[in-house]
Amino acid sequence: MSQGGAAARKAAESQDKGWAWMVLFAAVLLQGLTLGYPSCIGVFFKDLQHEFQASNSETSWFPSIMVAVLHGGGPLCSILVKQFGCRFAVMLGGLLSSVGMVSSSFCKSISQLYITAGFITGLGSCFSFQAGITALGCYFVRWRALANAVASTGVSLGFTLWPLLSQYLLDDMGWRNTFLIFGGVLLNCCVCGAIMRPLQLASESIPQPPKPDTEPGGSAEAAQLSNGASSPHPEVQQPSRGAACFQALQKYLAFDIFCQNKGYQIYTIGVVWTMMGFTLPHLYLVPYAIQNGVEERRAALLISVIGLINIFIRPFTGLLSGHRVFTGRRIYLFSLAVLLCGLSNFICVVSAEFSVLITYCIILSVAMSGVGALTFQVLMDVVEMERFSSALGLFTILESITLLIGPPLTGLLVDITSDFHYVFYASSFFQISAALFMGISFCMLEKKNKSKEASKIPLDDSSRYQYSEVPTQPQPESQPPPAVVCTTSV
To answer: Entry's Pfam families (predicted)?
Structure first.
């Protein structure tokens, strides 16, 4: 047996057992360190405002940039993983996150904080999180669904522990020393990356001949991302530089799918609109509670309650939605979860008493669990798996735009009115309208598809991208994962 074949066999033996469970443990920690970290920013909101004499809008740009870069850096992370592997990307991300937070402790203005804690830490978190999820998909085949469900509990652990740790350190040391300590904590992403040793999968040892009927960015996309860029066919003329740039752009940002696939188009618009208001409660809940007389430590506990409930509800929701009963109908469950998120915000408007806010956090956490568990499952329903990574790239880029501008615009509204109630009004508006848009649009699309089938009118070639409510056969568990599959902190 060749050396490559022996390595591939050894890699196959490592999947779903042994070291794979150490990789899963590292993935849980990574999600807690990266996706869970932005949940604690609200604890520092008032201190940063006082330190830099900044308005609500100016202060909210810092966490907005962090979250936007964390979500929007997906295509850049894909390139990094392709060239250097998952372990390098995770460790580089941990180093960037640490450098960003250490530098933040020396900032003299709020604009410097945008670059250090916002951009640098956000980009590092993106590299660590998304590359870690890719490595997890390589190590698990049979138990992949369970592994992803368990890994998602890391986000909930982060939501629970980061605010409590932040408030404790802030009371004793101030925000600058706290950020300095956080730089050391985030450096543990490098340790998690060291655990994720590379695997040479069986497909890597088998040459992949080019197929003449393959579309640009089509089924060859997954092979290129997993196996690296293969040498071009000797008989095929090299494309021009402009054509190569266009193919690379389409490979990572699937504009063709967005134009042809009605289901992907509706879902992307709906989620992008949802994100305008989705993160607002996490950022402004603690300042709102403090303004209304809630003690600071109890106010920080509110975010931890959301995370604690997520630990138990999110994995259960993810596994439940994977049942065949919900196949082809997950979009309606997702819309219902978004609708519940929007409606729950009205509880804060009624009263700001601590007991009422606890009730709000419980209901919001249940709804958030549904959104977080279903976001990428629904995306897999509306897009072919061979184009999933490119569709995901465009999806996260557009999502990051609204994540960036939502909090500052709402902060400006609070500065003008001096009333935090408008935060929850705005959050409810965006989420309720998005839920109704997605639910009604997919219902109409389903009826249209059924009427076409009933009249026996052949669908054009673009219909293969359209969302269908007809239950499909579950994919075999041995199918290789997409090149980059990531989740958000939703």
So the answer is: MFS_1 (PF07690)
- Mean pLDDT, rounded, for 40-49: 87
Instruction: Give the span between the Cα atoms of 110 and 126, in whole angstroms.
Output: 22
Distance CA 278, CA 82 (A): 32
Rounded CA-CA distance 395/159 in Å is: 24
Asked whether the predicted pLDDT for residue 398 surpasses 80, the reply is yes
Q: Which of 335, 215, 321 is nearest to 266 (CA)?
A: 335
Dihedral angle over CA of 49, 32, 193, 134, nearest 10? -110
Q: How far is CA 104 from the centre of its chain?
A: 24
Question: Which SS3 state, helix, strand or coil, does residue 156 take?
Answer: helix
Residue tagged 């190569």 (tokens): 244
Evaluate if residue 35 carries a pLDDT over 90.
no
Whether the CB-CB separation of 78 and 173 falls below 8 Å is answered with no
Residue 224: other Cβ atoms inside 10 A? 16
Burial grade of 185 (CB within 10 A; 0-12, 13-18, 19 or more): middle
Q: Is the dihedral of CA 275, 278, 279, 284 positive or negative?
A: positive
The CA dihedral of 381, 488, 335, 304, to the nearest 10 degrees, is 140
The gap between the terminal CA atoms of the chain, to the nearest Å, is 47
Q: Which amino acid is at 279?
A: T
What pLDDT, on the 0 to 100 scale, is given for residue 204? Answer: 41
Q: What is the pLDDT of residues 272-295, one digit of tens each?
A: 999 999 988 888 898 899 888 888
Q: What is the tens place of the pLDDT at every residue in 410-421? A: 888 888 888 889
Render 72-95 in DSSP notation, one character per residue. Answer: HTHHHHHHHHHHH-HHHHHHHHHH
CB count in 10 Å sphere of residue 451: 10
d(CA 12, CA 38): 36
C-alpha to C-alpha distance for 346 and 421, rounded to whole angstroms? 9
**Residue closest to 99 by CA, chosen among 190, 10, 195:** 190
In angstroms, the CA 444 to CA 218 distance is 28
Per-residue pLDDT tens digits for 45-70: 889 988 999 888 888 898 889 989 98
SS3 240: coil
- State mean pLDDT over 117-135: 90
Place of tokens 């967005």: 258
The DSSP code sequence of 319-355 is HHHTSGGGTTTHHHHHHHHHHHHHHHTHHHHH---HH
